[in-house]
TrEMBL record:
Its main location: membrane. Residues 88-337 form the G-protein coupled receptors family 1 profile domain. CDD domains: 7tmA_OR7-like. It is found in: Membrane. It is a multi-pass membrane protein. This is Olfactory receptor 7E24-like. It holds the Pfam family 7tm_4. SUPFAM superfamilies: Family A G protein-coupled receptor-like. It comes from Phyllostomus discolor. The keyword Thylakoid does not apply. The gene is LOC114503636. GO terms for cellular component: membrane.
Length: 358
């Protein structure tokens, strides 16, 4: 406990805090140690960050609205979007797995992308729906780290799978004769496994950055889910190095994936332009046309969230981009693929027919 001392003097809690600068003063038979202004500033700075990582037990997430009527509307809206996303992506997985015509590398990657989208939206939306219903925004510290890790894992895996799918289109259109050799089932499974392992490594790297934080200025996260940029913003220690590592890794990994997609589609366009028949060009463009809108939606919203967390102090100002990235994009993916793909629409029709007849 602190002793009663003159105003403007701070004492350490225990001698274990290390050597201090002080002046001993005898008064009424007692020795009083007057600590220097430097120690006073150090103690008061520590008082601004009283919550060590070992003591932090929970965070408070941002509410999209404090209006009770609007909260009821948001509850129904996000519940509907979540159910539509899960159902749409599950239908794609069932159609691909049950129809032998779709047992090709392209639809194998598509079914894995649908699975990643289900996991991606399930990390944030159910928690938000429960919070709206229970009027509670509390999330435990451990749950916050788990949510952040899985969000990065499946988000990065989405980007990896989109890159793999672009490579699949490139081989199918530009090197059709080698397509059966370069996209055999073993190679397809290996590409998905490598995508998962790289995504896992990236998520654990971000998790390691958070675990190095020593204290927080506040426990209120200005977001409806836990993300690394917000936790770094709340840290009271110097996070300059962590921010450099975070944005360097994000820029390099995102840039490599996007450049690979751009390279694949440049080759595809040049190959299609050399096709003499108009019908052949149209068929080639239509086969990969469903992939481009998904790439645009994912990377457009991802870079919006990335730049928003860098330039804006509070994501509340950019909540529309966050909702687009975490909710709308996974929901639209199955519609984009099913509406622009004849084979998939036929498979869904056959699946519906078998379900009705049974």
């Amino acid at each position: 406990m602190h002793q009663k001392v003159p105003a403007g003097v701070c004492f350490p809690v225990s001698p274990e805090e290390g050597p201090q600068s002080f002046i001993e003063h005898e008064a009424e038979g007692q020795t009083i140690r007057l600590y220097s202004l430097v120690m006073f500033q150090q103690r008061c700075n520590l008082a601004q960050c009283p919550q060590n990582l070992t003591r932090v037990s929970e965070f408070f997430l941002m509410s999209l609205s404090d209006d009770p009527e609007l909260q009821s509307l948001l509850f129904g809206l996000f519940l509907f979007m979540y159910l539509v996303t899960v159902l749409g992506n599950l239908l794609i997985i069932l159609a691909v797995s049950s129809d032998s015509h779709l047992h090709t590398p392209m639809y194998f990657f598509l079914s894995n992308l649908s699975l990643a989208d289900i996991c991606f939206i399930s990390i944030t939306v159910p928690k938000m729906i429960v919070d709206i219903q229970t009027h509670s925004r509390v999330i435990a510290y451990g749950d916050c780290l788990i949510q952040m890790s899985f969000l990065i894992l499946f988000g990065f895996m989405d980007g990896m799978l989109l890159t793999v799918m672009a490579y699949d289109w490139f081989v199918a259109i530009c090197h059709l004769l080698y397509y059966p050799l370069t996209t055999n089932p073993c190679l397809c499974c290996l590409l998905v496994l490598v995508s998962f392992l790289i995504s896992l490594l990236d998520s654990q790297l971000h998790n390691l950055i958070v675990l190095q934080l020593t204290c927080f200025k506040d426990v209120k996260i200005s977001n409806f889910f836990c993300n690394l940029s917000q936790l770094l913003h709340l840290a009271c220690s110097d996070t300059f190095t962590n921010n450099i590592v975070l944005y360097f890794v994000g820029t390099i990994s995102g840039g490599v994936l996007l450049s690979r997609i751009f390279f694949s589609y440049c080759k595809i366009v040049f190959s299609i332009l050399r096709v003499p028949l108009i019908d052949g060009k149209y068929k080639a463009f239509s086969t990969c046309g469903s992939h481009l809108p998904v790439v645009y939606l994912f990377y457009g919203t991802a870079f919006g969230v990335y730049l928003g967390s860098t330039l804006l102090p509070s994501p509340r100002k950019d909540v529309a981009t966050l909702v687009m990235y975490t909710v709308v994009t996974p929901m639209l993916n199955p519609f984009v693929y099913s509406l622009r793909n004849r084979d998939l629409k036929s498979a869904l029709g056959r699946l519906h027919g078998r379900t009705v007849s049974s």
